Amino acid sequence: MSDEEVDALTRLLDLADNPLMDLLLGRSEPEGEVDLPHVRALLARLRQA
Questions:
Q1: I need a labelling partner for 20 at 20 to 30 A (CA). Which of 2, 42, 48, 49 fits?
Q2: CA distance to 28, 31, 32, 45, per residue, from 49 (Å)
């Protein structure tokens, strides 16, 4: 994983369970500290899996 991917994963895993699940399932989009291009890119990859 690249440094950006590690940062994105760390930011996502720092979220509480329900907000993380909402992001992974596409029920919400990143906001605030997690609204970054590399986080959005990782979410897109995870949503396709």
A1: 2
A2: 17, 22, 25, 7
pLDDT in tens, 6-33: 999 999 999 999 999 999 999 999 999 9
Residue 4 structure tokens: 């950006």
Name the amino acid, one letter, at 11: R
14, with CB counted inside 10 A (0-12, 13-18, 19+), is exposed
Among 34, 40, 38, smallest CA distance to 13 is for 34
| Tokens at 27, concatenated | 């029920």
User: pTM score, two decimals?
Assistant: 0.91
* Residue extents of the structural domains in the chain: 3-48
